[in-house]
Amino acid sequence: MDEGQTRDSMEQLARRLVLELRSRGDVADGAAVTEIRDSPTPWLTLEFDLYDFLPVAFFYDRGWGGFSVDYGSRRVSLLKLTDVHFDHGRVRIAKAVDDLLTAARLRIPDKFLAAHGWSAQQPPTESSTEGDV
């Protein structure tokens, strides 16, 4: 996917992602945009904590993107966005967050999730924010 296919501005993409995370309840906290630009090339980095356990960074760069656990000097991939996460160049936020939450729960101890009221097998939640913005 090339940068010409990008339909969202980076501000719109950040807003849609934050709204989607908030719609899932208390699974994410502290979302903050750390880098953003629309030109000369689209770029976005948004950081947040997931399940009070994983420091996550979302990145988007000219049609490529994904989520990583951020360990400061090193990031470990949680989810790389693929064709199933895009619809005519626009990121399918609900699908991306569904897949992110599934990948994250696999890396968090079941006892920790249960103690906080989350399930390791929690099914993805359909969101109503997909069509927004």
How is the topology of this model organized?
Elements: H1 10-23, E1 28-37, E2 43-50, E3 54-61, E4 64-70, E5 75-80, E6 86-87, E7 90-91, H2 93-107, H3 110-115
Antiparallel strand pairs: 1-2, 2-3, 3-4, 4-5, 6-7
What is this entry, summarized?
The protein has 133 residues and is α+β, with helices and mostly antiparallel strands.
What report would you give on this structure?
This protein has 133 residues and is an alpha+beta fold. It has one domain. Helix content is 26%, strand content 32%. It contains three helices and seven strands, in the order αβββββββαα. It has helices at 10-23, 93-107, 110-115; strands spanning 28-37, 43-50, 54-61, 64-70, 75-80, 86-87, 90-91. The protein has a five-stranded antiparallel β-sheet with strand order 1-2-3-4-5, covered by helices on one side. The chain has a two-stranded antiparallel sheet with strand order 6-7. A hairpin with a 5-residue loop joins β1 and β2 (43-50). The radius of gyration is 14 Å and the shape is globular. Mean pLDDT is 86; it is low at 1-6.
- Tally of individual helices: 3
| Beta-strand fraction estimate | 25-35%
The total number of structural domains is 1
What is the percent of helical residues?
A: 25-40%
- Summing up helix and strand content along with how strands pair, one would put the structural category as alpha+beta
Number of DSSP E strands: 7
Biggest sheet character:
5 strands, antiparallel
Q: Which runs of at least 5 residues are low in confidence (pLDDT < 50)?
A: 1-6
Helix-strand string: HEEEEEEEHH
As an assembly, this protein is single chain
| Terminal CA distance | 21 Å
Q: What is the average of the pLDDT values?
A: 86
